[in-house]
Amino acid sequence: MKRANSENSGGSTAESSGHNTPENDEPGFPPTKRLLARSEERGDSDTEEIRQKMNGCGRVNGEAIEEDRIAILDSGAQYGKVIDRRVREQNVFSEMFPLATTAKQICETGKFKGIIISGGPNSVYAPGAPTVDPAIFSCGLPVFGICYGFQLLNKWAGGGVSREKVREDGQTEVRIEKDSPIFEKLESTERVLLTHGDSVSPATVASGFRIIASSGQHVAGIAHEKEHLYGVQFHPEVDLTLHGRQIFHNFLYNICKCKGGFTMRSREQICIDEIRQTVGEENKVLVLVSGGVDSAVCAALLHKSLGKDRVTAIHVDNGFMRYNESDSVIKSLNALDLNVHRYNSWPEFFLVP
């Protein structure tokens, strides 16, 4: 097999190097835990700082930044990850958990500012229907139930849920009570997405809760403002609910009192700190870059963390790239001032014995 041709786009080739892996560094072991294990094994002075990062604390310019967190309990929703995305778009970190996760598991960490319960395909009154730890609603954290989560909330508080003869599916208008904190800056009538066959009627709303949204004869939202408990029958996470992002903003900032520390800058700095801790002060890194998002972001972060002289990027043109794609990749990497080498290896990939 012939050696591949190389085009040097700046700098000399560096050798990759790293620390010895501890005994518990097994496949699938979370990177942050691996980093902590290495630091503890070596007796590093910044072990406690790494432990703080694992608990949701980053540092920007030497200042600690606490990440507010929201727990999302997944009821089997088709839009579960969309809820996750909507929360993170608001610069708040979110974690998804199974619906059966206990209040103790969430609250004892001290990390979370609120809980969102997603929608799901089940009926809350059906035998064997998935349910939630009742203590979730009394643990002291604000709770926002969506669709199935809304019905679980009403049922827990002593209200009723019943099957309707006709499902309510599609975008429709609901009337809302604008004085509710979760509906701040919304109009008195909003277009939302409803997809449900079970409903809560005005007569079956749990005691202590008030109706804050309605669709025809159905209840579309309830609230117990004193206890910070809210529920909506519609789906604020989807684009068909026109002002759903505002509803999430209201829950996160008005009700949960999040600070919004989960920014691109803070996440970048956490990555840079971890890279520097892992690589050390003198080691160099060799990184393979395909031109895709993952490897390009990794290379850019390495460059920011360690500098040009300690990072060498290699791009292999295997002959199966799109027309002129490798040229585009090299151009993009050079724009980042990376020390990048291109290997035209298509003869090896096309070589037939």
UniProtKB/TrEMBL annotation:
It comes from the Eukaryota. Pfam families: GATase (PF00117), NAD_synthase (PF02540). GO terms for cellular component: cytosol. Residues 1-21 have a biased composition (Polar residues). Residues 1-55 are annotated as: Disordered. Residues 37-52 have a biased composition (Basic and acidic residues). Residues 262-353 form the GMPS ATP-PPase domain. Keywords: ATP-binding, Glutamine amidotransferase, GMP biosynthesis, Ligase, Nucleotide-binding, Purine biosynthesis. GO terms for molecular function: ATP binding; GMP synthase activity. Transmembrane segments: none annotated. Signal peptide: none annotated. ATP binds at S290, G291, G292, V293, D294, S295, A296. PROSITE patterns: GATASE_TYPE_1, GMPS_ATP_PPASE. This is GMPS ATP-PPase domain-containing protein. It comes from Mesorhabditis belari.
